[in-house]
Amino acid sequence: TTVEETLVLVKPDGVARNLTGEILRRIEAKGYSLVDVKLVQADRTLLTQHYAEHEGKPFFGPLVEFMESGPIVAFRVAGNRVIEGFRSLAGTTDPSKAAPGTIRGDLGRDWGVAVQQNLVHGSDSPESAARELALWFD
Ligand code: DAT
Ligand code: MG
């Protein structure tokens, strides 16, 4: 086994739609463990660091604005191969393309909202997980 930790964010749309519990239920049902949790009103500095890889892309401004629009719930989650495993639970970025059975596929609204409103963030590699956990939890 390869025990890892990852950062999961329930984005402002997920918190506003009262889906935090349903998202955590799916994480726990998969066998992952909640290590730490907090409710955060993120500021632009944190979000710019969090999404540094996307700075300069056309969707960066709207993405940061959306992430600032309301509280976020941050989870530190541990488990066997949880980094890739949570990405698979979340489904692909665009909810209209995400498979049934995934968080974005089952719960994402696939029309009338922008792609950034896709309910969750999950770290995409061990390096991202370490960097992002330090940003949100240290
Ligand atoms: P993911 O969240 O699946 O890791 P990402 O890291 O490529 O996706 O992008 C970060 C977020 O930015 C994503 O959750 C939603 C938004 N986003 C990505 N690509 C987009 C696009 N083409 N148009 C609008 N928003 C986009
Ligand atoms: Mg990403």
Summarize this, please?
The chain is of the alpha+beta class and 138 residues long.
Give the overall average pLDDT. Answer: 97
Categorize the overall geometry. globular
The stretches of 5 or more residues where confidence is low (pLDDT under 50) are: none
Q: How would you describe the oligomerization state of the chains in this entry?
A: single chain
Content-based structural category: alpha+beta
Beta content comes to: 15-25%
- Largest sheet: number of strands, sense, barrel closure: 4 strands, antiparallel
What's the count of strands?
4
What is the end-to-end distance? 26 Å
Q: Which ligands occur here?
A: 2'-deoxyadenosine-5'-diphosphate, magnesium ion
Q: Which bin fits the share of residues in helices?
A: 40-55%
Keywords: ATP-binding, Kinase, Magnesium, Metal-binding, Nucleotide metabolism, Nucleotide-binding, Transferase
Catalytic activity: a 2'-deoxyribonucleoside 5'-diphosphate + ATP = a 2'-deoxyribonucleoside 5'-triphosphate + ADP
Organism: Cryobacterium melibiosiphilum
Active site: 121
Describe the protein in words:
It catalyses: a 2'-deoxyribonucleoside 5'-diphosphate + ATP = a 2'-deoxyribonucleoside 5'-triphosphate + ADP. This is Nucleoside diphosphate kinase. The active site is at 121 (pros-phosphohistidine intermediate). Belongs to the NDK family. With 138 residues, the protein is α+β, with helices and mostly antiparallel strands. It contains 7 helices and 4 strands. Strands 2-3-1-4 form a 4-stranded antiparallel β-sheet, with helices on both faces. It is globular, with a radius of gyration of 14 Å. The structure holds 2'-deoxyadenosine-5'-diphosphate and magnesium ion.
